[in-house]
Each structure stands twice: as C-alpha cells, then as structure tokens.
Amino acid sequence: MRIAQISPLFEAVPPKLYGGTERVVSSLTEELVAMGHEVTLFASGDSVTAAKLAAMREQALRLDPSVKDWVAHYMKMVEQVAQRADEFDVIHSHIDYFPLGLLDRQRTPFLTTLHGRLDLPEFKMIYETYGRTPYVSISDHQRLPIPRLNWVRTVLHGMPKDRLTPQPVEQKYFAFLGRVSPEKGLDKAIRIAARAGVKLKVAAKIDVADRAYYEREIAPLMAQGHVEYIGEINDDQKPEFLSGAHALLFPIDWPEPFGLVMIEAMACGTPVIAFRRGSVPEVMEDGLTGFVVENEDEAVAAVARVPELDRRKVRGRFEQRFTARRMAEDYVAVYEELIAANRKPHLRAIGD
C-alpha cells in the first residue's frame, strides 16, 4: 500500500525532546514501513525515518526563530501533498483542519486523525463544515463535543514495544512528565507529593506561551525542598527517569484527548495516578495499571496503595494494548475500508 503521512511541522519526526503528535506519527510511520508498506512522510527536513521523507522545510518550526507566520508553511505543505495525491493509495493527515478544503476535493482516499481537544466552538464550526471527511479519534471521549462527525474509528495511540523498557533501579520519587501549563496540573502534583511525603522529579517543557504562568504560579512551588526540576528529557533518558518513580502523577484539569505520558510510564512498568478527565478511564485500568482518582485527596490516598500494584503486569498491559504494531494494524484496517469504499461505483438515482 502506498501511504502518505502528513505530520505537523513544529517538531521533527520523531521529536528531539517534547512532542506528542510528532512522536505518534513517527511510531506509526516506522511500523507501517516495517510491515512492508511504501510510506512517504511529509515533515520537517530534520526528521529521521525509514520512510521516504518529503522535507517541507529544513528544520522544525520550533527550532527556527526566523519564522513569523507558521500557517504559511502548512499551506505550502498541503498544496504539495495535493499535487502528488495520485501517487498514493491513501493520504493520512495529522494536521487538524488545514488540508480539509483542498484534499477533500481530490480522488485519493483521505482521512484525518484529530489529536487535540475539540471542546472549543470554533472547532465544532470548522470540522462540521467538512462533515463528510473520514475522521479518526484517539479516544471515545474526544468525540463528545462533536459527536455527529463522520467518525470511522477510535484508534488508541501506540509506541514501539522496546522504545521504553523497565530498568533495574530503585524507586525513590514521584515523576511528572510533559509540559508546564495550567491544564497539566503540575501545581497539584507538587501538593500531592508534599502531602505524601515523597520527592517529586519534574521533567517538563515550558513553552513561551506558558512562561508567565510558570513564573507566577509554579516557580514559587518549585522552590520547595521536595521538588527537583530536571527540564525536558529525550527518549534515551525516559526509561531510567520513569522506572525510578513509585508512580507517574497525572493530575490533569482538562479533557485530555489521550495522554501519551501514561503509556510511556506503563511501558516502564510504572503505575500512574491520574485524575478522571478526558481519555484517562479509557487508557488506565484502575487497580491494575494505576489508580483513577477524582481529586487531590483521593490521589494522596492512592499513594498508600501503589505497592499493591505489580509492575510486571503494568508492563504487560502496555504490551497488550499500546504497541505501535497494534496501532498500525488498526490504521491499516481503516485504510483498506476507505480504499474499498472509494472503488465502489457511485450510482446516481433515476431522475438525477
């Protein structure tokens, strides 16, 4: 099968440090290639892939301070994909609504995986404008704000089985991994760790947009003795970081569409204590891979139960549910359905 993958341009594929969607696109692309498919990846030129790389610019947007209008780069990429559409059996987009107007009007089967939140009114407006486009959700909960779209499948994220593995290290702290922003709940994680009397290690990115929030709300909390900030980390650093944690704290305060850090922790055999928001109940199995809680009080209570969990079973559930091969097989099934539907003759009713 000849497959085009359209990646965001903000990070390389895979990202050097933080980057959720680009990391998923990388996992999917490499697994599709390993399965024997001919894949072309439209991404930044600093990406590393076994697929054919169609470099849309020299480097990722986040690394290039000269970029003033990132939308222009996306529009150029969409045009280049459209010009090459006949080269592919299916086109798979991961860049939200940008390509819909153009790629919805060409003949090659086309689908979009939506990776972000959908609970803003503008999103309902724009996606319903292209209501016939096939969409894939990354959790069932993600669909709730716009339930009547042409949802063809929910495909939970996956990652390479051996990218992150349990390490033989002693567990000495709680971990917080990801991004510093109001919805990610680092302030809550700091309070939970303090109440539990356990050290918290924070491996997180601080975006420019969140810098003021960090300085105002988080920096004073980081000065507490039980908190250690180690900054952004890469995949090579994650196994030891996550394996050394009693649990990953995930006290989110927003409708998380998926939450990749949860399965990264599970891959290392590390349980997760997560707030019941968004996709969490679909990803986590309460009492097996961690604990799903409602608030800080319940999170603190769950800390005492962490030793009850078997870290080997946590890793086992990752292998059963969240590998890149399972994700790729799910997507191939979607591709085959779209290609078959596209080949069916479209009969016109009598009198049309």
TrEMBL record:
Coiled coil: none annotated. The keyword Oxidoreductase does not apply. It holds the Pfam family Glycos_transf_1. The keyword Zinc-finger does not apply. Transmembrane segments: none annotated. Residues 168-307 form the Glycosyl transferase family domain. Residues 18-130 form the Glycosyltransferase subfamily 4-like N-terminal domain. Keywords: Transferase. One of its GO terms (molecular function) is glycosyltransferase activity. This is Glycosyltransferase family 4 protein. It comes from Teichococcus coralli.
